[in-house]
Amino acid sequence: DINECDGSPCKDDQYCLNTDGSFSCKVCDATCVGCTGEGSDKCKTCAPGYIKEDEKCTDINECNLPEKVCIRENEDCVNTKGSYKCVCSEGFEEKDGTCIPI
């Protein structure tokens, strides 16, 4: 068997899996920018919104950062995978860029 993966035949967001007489390209984990294999522990670097912890790329909880990311009055931060969103607090709704009482 020739290891076709030696020539890096896959795209930047894929890793190569050698098989008998062939190879296949597999998509990197969503937490990665480039990878050497399957999973968040095989990332070359972490995607935006992720940080390397215990050899794996894990989500950054932007809502727990010292500097507030949602700065409007009556607004809450909601963490999402790789990002966050700002939503009006319960009992408030967004109108013209501000959170007003319902």
UniProtKB/TrEMBL annotation:
GO molecular function: calcium ion binding
UniProt keyword annotation of Transcription regulation present: no
Presence of the UniProt keyword Repeat in the record: yes
SMART domains documented for this protein: EGF, EGF_CA, FU
Keywords of the record: Disulfide bond, EGF-like domain, Repeat, Signal
Domain EGF-like residues, every copy: 59-98
Entry similarity comment: Belongs to the CRELD family.
Pfam family for this entry, one: EGF_CA
Stored InterPro entries: ECM_structural_protein, EGF, EGF-like_Ca-bd_dom, EGF-type_Asp/Asn_hydroxyl_site, EGF_Ca-bd_CS, Furin_repeat, Growth_fac_rcpt_cys_sf, NOTCH1_EGF-like
UniProt-recorded name of the protein: CRE2A protein
Domain of life: Eukaryota
